[in-house]
Amino acid sequence: MPVITYRDALNQALREEMHNDDRVFLMGEEVGQYNGAYKVSKGLLEEFGEQRVVDTPITELGFAGVGVGAAMVGLRPVIEFMTWNFALLALDQVVNAAAKMLYMSGGQFPMPIVFRGPNGAALQLSAQHSQAWESWLAHIPGLKVVAPGTPYDAKGLLKSSIRDGNPIVFLEGEMLYNTKGEVPEEPYLIPLGKADLKREGSDCSIITSGKMVLVAMNAADQLAKEGIKVDVVDLRTIRPMDTEAIYASVRKTNRAVVVEEGWEICGIGAQVVDFIQRDCFDALDAPVLRVHQADVPMPYAKAIEKAAKPDVPKTIAAVKKVMYLEA
Amino acid sequence: MAPKKKPETNGNAALHKELLHHMLMQRRFEEKVAEAYALGKIGGFCHLYIGQEAVSTGILPLLRDDDYVITTYRDHGQALVRGMSPRSVMAELFGRVDGCSKGKGGSMHLFDRNVNFMGGHGIVGGHVPIAAGFGFAIKYRGGDQVAVCFMGEAAVNNGAFHEALNMAGLWKLPVVFVIENNKYGMGTAESRSSSTKEMYKRGDTYSMANALVDGQDVFAVREAAAAAIERARTSYEATLLEVRTYRFVGHSMSDAVSGTYRTKAELEEYMKRDPINLLKATMTAAGELDDAALQAMEAEIAAVVQDAWDFADASPEPPLEALYEDVLVETASS
Fold first, then answer.
1. Both ends of chain A: CA-CA distance in Å?
2. Which candidate in A29, A80, A129, A305 is catalytic?
3. Which structural domain, as residue segments, surrounds residue B121?
4. Which residues 61-80 of A have a C-beta within 8 angstroms of B?
5. Which of B153, B119, B324, B320 is nearest to A108 (CA)?
6. Quick check: A164 and A113 in contact, CB under 8 A?
7. Does residue A200 have an active-site annotation?
8. How is domain A3-182 classified at the CATH fold level?
9. Fewest CB within 10 angstroms: B175, B283, B289, B331, which?
């Protein structure tokens, strides 16, 4: 099976879906002539032309709204935000327009639109370019929020997102674009709302998504060397969350740790914990712990930025804590 | 299938009667809405179109069925002229299941897919980029439809307005942007919020045709709109129209008619140019309207409005299950 990058997996997904359906178009800053700020859209302008790969001015609110309008009249826009940090400006369109349009029109106007781009921290991008947005957006009924952590998941989930017919928030990662993994040549889809058990073990459940999947998998490898075997539940979709997958794992292991990129307060891990305590209380042998970013804006300097982020040592420490083992 | 075009009326008298009918229908409907609100049948925010009828009436009858219309929360008048049934609008205002949005939207969120009435939006300026999106889609498909976007004058200071007009001018999108300048953004006079008095000239900034229009003169509005619609339809060029009008009521049902941010004297002065009276005067002078005809029209309209009320009142509120409906669509299996 070919081994390709996360970036190329997304590129393939876009290419295939644009071939399959004339209504699909890509719009965003630098997506065309520049081949994409992170090269996700490389070659698409050449293949599909200017009408379908549209370079925009730096106007997130405006072009997100153009996407909403196009979706209202039956096109299927893929709106790229160069980073979800810039999308804050566009949230009126994502939340007040896209998420609510079907409901407030009494079901008349579906919103088949994908808003996608890199989310969360990279390296030394500093406070304004490093925020993780999943918890703001997962709060909103009317949106689906997807966060693939591997090339295989990225391609299948983006294809499904474009076909879904609802407004999708699709969270990628600058640090994920170069990661590699096996991706089949034949087209395939991954359903939204379904987690994936990426590692099996009965000592503890690690529940995670997006960039943190790599952290969790590395932690799992290191823990295995010490004889500790963990489940790694990759949520893949944040909203709707696959609670059945979470519960199946926690009922087996009786212990859970959430590894998430965002901050502590009202982060998505808080929601995972709520689900677990509500429906698996009697299965738990320890409190559920969360590994998340330090409760600060992201600093620039190298060492303290590293200290701010969730990582393998913190994940291992959390697993050992819920197992009541010495650190 | 060729899109349906509104038939040309034979002779001015028939057209004028049609225009008067539209304006009177809006006026009487909105007066009834005010009554309903006072009785508690309508709740929340309710923004009436009284005084501004010539703007919707001057523009919307020129459109084809396959054109798109989008507007603000002051949407009742435009909805009616666009062809939404008074019954479905009143039922929506009453929050009943037979409302156009099944009672889920309310006054600010009238939608009707059947007549391409694309809402009814509550965020000032927020719908303007959406209108640009319609223009984008029209051009994407190589069509000759037009999108008409109404907004208040307070919206022209808003970021979304600038972003949308910039793209419409840059990409040449077939949109007619209509500023309904009624002089007040809620309680704030335009002189206190806009650095430029001549709002239509902002079109120059965006390389867009633009014009100032007397919004109380339905013929002036119609003439300016016809040119703008033609320009969009034939050459994918946008237009910014500033249509100067006035509302004879408060911003919303919870706002005083006058005596706070605008004086009674000012209101009375503007009411001398009630657009309905102006049209009636023109028609009467031309021998196109007499008392009997007017009375007959008023009686017919009164019956339609009462029927809408009765229909709305008889319609049930949405059931509890409706709370959870239409949040997402079912994904078609691929």
1. 40
2. A129
3. 26-33+41-312
4. 61-75
5. B119
6. no
7. no
8. Rossmann fold (3.40.50)
9. B331
Using CB atoms within 10 A of its CB, is residue B319 exposed (0-12), middle (13-18) or buried (19+)?
A: exposed
Q: B291-314 vs B12-38: helix axis angle to the nearest 10?
A: 40
Is the pLDDT score of B334 beyond 80? no
Taking residues A95-104, report their average pLDDT.
Answer: 98
- Count the domains in chain B: 1
Residue span(s) of chain A under CATH 3.40.50.920 come to 196-322
Q: Is residue B90 part of a domain?
A: yes
ipTM confidence: 0.96
The pLDDT assigned to B4 comes to 55
Q: Is A187 on the interface with B (CB under 8 A)?
A: no
Q: Which of B109, B129, B136 sits opposite A105 (nearest CB)?
A: B109
User: What span, in angstroms and rounded, lies between the C-alpha atoms of B137 and B175?
Assistant: 11
Q: How would CATH label the architecture of A196-322?
A: 3-Layer(aba) Sandwich (3.40)
Residue B325 lies in a domain: no
Q: Do B133 and A102 touch (CB under 8 A)?
A: no
Q: Is B333 domain-assigned?
A: no
How many Å apart are CA A103 and CA A251, to the nearest integer? 36
User: Which residue of B71, B110, B130, B158 is the best one to mutate when testing the A interface, meaning the one whose CB has the most A CBs within 10 A?
Assistant: B130
Residue A240 confidence (pLDDT) above 50:
yes
Residue A139 known to be catalytic: no
Query: CATH 3.40.50.970: which residues of chain A?
Result: 3-182
Q: Which of A60, A80, A174, A305 is catalytic?
A: A60
pLDDT digits (tens, 9 = 90+) for A124-151: 999 999 999 999 999 999 999 999 999 9
